[in-house]
Amino acid sequence: MAGVTNPQAPFLWLPAQDDGPEALTLVVDTPKGTHIRRIPPALPLPAHIDHGPGAEEATHRAAATWGMPDFVFQQAAHAAKGSGRRELGDRLLLAGRRGAVVQVKARTIAPKADAQEIVWIQKVAAKAMSQAKGTVRQLRMMPAYMVNGRDRAMQVDGNAFEWIAVFLLDHPHVPRDTVVTWQPLGMPAIALTRRDWDFLFDQLRSTTAVLDYLFRAAGEPAVPLGDEPVRYYELAAADADAPPRPIDTELVGAGGTLFSVPQLPQAPAGGDGTNVHRVLRIILEDIALTPFGEPMTELNRFTVLSDLDRLPVSARAEWGHLLLDMLRDVPDVPAGNCKWRFRRMLYEDGTRQLIVGAATRFDRTIQVAFTAYVQLRHHEVTTRTGRTDESSTLGVLLTPRRNGRPWDTSTVRVHGDLEIPSGDLKLYSDVWNRAFEEGDAVDHSRAGRPPAAPAAG
Fold it and tell me: Cα–Cα distance between 412 and 21 in angstroms, integer?
C-alpha cells in the first residue's frame, strides 16, 4: 500500500482502502510504541431527512453523543428590524467561556470537476464565515434564548463568550489539497470536513477539549480540508515532548503535588479498553439530569457542567480508577461513622479548583460538612493567590447506594469572596484541617494542577 511520510511529524499517513476514499489510517510512533489510528468516514446521514438538514443533524448528533448535549445549541430566531426574523447560525457549541458558531454546508448534487468544486467550496466557505460573523454580532447586540440538546432553553449573551467561526463541509469527495481561505473576521476561524469534526469528538470525548483544540488549531497555518487528524497528531506529538512548566504547589497547601498531562492525548479517550473514562461522563449526566429548583437556572447548570468538563482528557482514566476505588473504600467503617476521601486539583491559571470526594453516606450532616470543606479550600487557595474575585471552586461528592444505581452525585460551587464569618472559618479549619493532620478517616489524595499544553503557548 502506498503511503506518504512527513519528516516533521512522527507518523505515517496511509489511505484506508477498506473504508473508502474518505477514510485514512495514521501510524503514530509514541513513547509507548507504535499506535495505529484508523479515521473512519463521517457518521452516516439520517435517512429520513434531506441532505442539507441531515448534515446539520449529523453534526449535532456527533457533538451531543461524544461530547454533551447540554453544550450543543440549536439555531434560534431573533427579532430583526421590521417584520423579518434572522437566524443565528446553524449550531452553537458552548462550554465555559468559549463558543463556536458552526455553519454546516453540504454538497447536495453530484460533484463536478475538481477545479469547479474548489471554486464552489471557496464560495460557500466565504458565505459561511460571513454568516458566523453576523451571528456573533447579533448575539453581542442582544442576548437570545437558545435551545440545547436536551430541549432546555438558556439565554446566551454573546459578550460572555470568546468566539470562533467553524465552516463545516459535508462533501462526498473534497479535491485533494484544498485549502480554504476567507476574509479576516475579527475572530478566530477554521474550516473542517464532517469527518474531521467526528474525529475530534471521538478522539477527545469532551466539548471543552474540542473547543480548546479548535481555538488552538485556528492559530496555526491552514491545512487542506480533511487533514485535521494529521494536524492533531502533529500537535499531540509536540505536547508529549513538552516539559511541564514550574508551578508553586504550595498554593494548595502542604503536600501539593505537581502533575502534568498532555493537552492532546495521542490515544483516543477510553483507548485503554477499561471504560473508566465513562465515570466522568456518568457524573456529568447525573448533574445534567438532576432537577434544579429556584433560584437555580439552566445557566447555573451549564456553568457546573463546564467546570467539570475542564478536567483534562489525558487524566480522566486515572481519575475514574481513583473514584471507583474511593467508592469501594468509604463504606468500610463501623456503624455510625463516616469515611471521607478527596482529590483536589488547582488548574494552571490558579483561578479554578476542582474537588471530587466520596463519603460513606449522604444526609444533611454530610451535605453541610462537604459544603464547609469546599468553602474552606476555596478560601485558603484564594488567600494564597490573591485572585479572589475571579476564582471559583467546584465540589463533587459521590456517595454509594446499596440498590439501583451505584452512587449518588451532589455538587457545590462557590465563586469569589465568600465572606465567611471568622467564627465559622475557624470551625471549618479546626474540623477539616485537624482531620487531615490526624488522618481521621480522611484520605489526603494528592493535590496539584496539570499544566495545559505548554507547547500551545
Answer: 49
DSSP structural state of residue 441: S
Task: Say how many CA atoms lie within 13 Å of 14 toward its Cβ.
Answer: 15
Per-residue pLDDT at 150: 94
**Could you give the C-alpha distances from 448 to 256, 279, 290, 456, in angstroms and in order?**
5, 21, 29, 20
Tens of pLDDT along 409-437? 999 999 999 999 999 999 999 999 887 66
- The Cα 107–Cα 112 span in angstroms is 10
In a domain, 90, yes or no: yes
Could you report how far apart the first and last alpha carbons of the chain are, in Å?
38
The answer to whether the beta carbons of residues 193 and 125 sit under 8 Å apart is no
How far apart, in whole angstroms, are the C-alpha atoms of residue 424 and residue 70?
36
d(CA 70, CA 41): 25
Q: How far is CA 272 from CA 205, 269, 278, 283, in A?
A: 14, 8, 12, 20
Q: Give the CA angle between residues 407, 412, 416 to the nearest 5°.
A: 160
Please give the average per-residue pLDDT across 147-157, as a whole number.
93
86 and 211 in a common domain: yes
How many Cβ atoms are within 10 Å of 380's Cβ, its own excluded? 18
Examine the pLDDT at 80 and tell me if it is beyond 60: no
Q: How far apart are CA 450 and CA 258, in angstroms?
A: 7
321 and 429 together in one domain:
yes
| Amino acid (1-letter code) at residue 320 | G
Asked if 328 and 280 sit in the same domain, the reply is yes
Range of the domain at 8: 4-39
Helix axes 207-218, 228-241, angle to 10 degrees: 100
Of 236, 267, 290, which residue constitutes the final position of a domain?
236
User: Number of folded domains in the chain?
Assistant: 3
In DSSP terms, 74 is beta-bridged to 91, 147
What DSSP element (H or E) covers 399? strand 392-400
Residue 156 β-bridge partners: 144
Is the same domain home to 161 and 211? yes
Q: Is the residue at 44 inside a domain?
A: no
Residue 38 has pLDDT above 90, yes or no: no
In the predicted structure, residue 440 carries a pLDDT above the cut 50: no
Residue range 358-414, pLDDT digits in tens: 999 999 999 999 999 999 999 999 999 999 999 999 999 999 987 778 899 999 999
Is position 242 within any domain? no
Question: Which residues on neighbouring strands pair with residue 444, listed in sequence order?
Answer: 342
Q: Is the same domain home to 79 and 118? A: yes
pLDDT digits (tens, 9 = 90+) for 57-71: 999 999 999 999 999
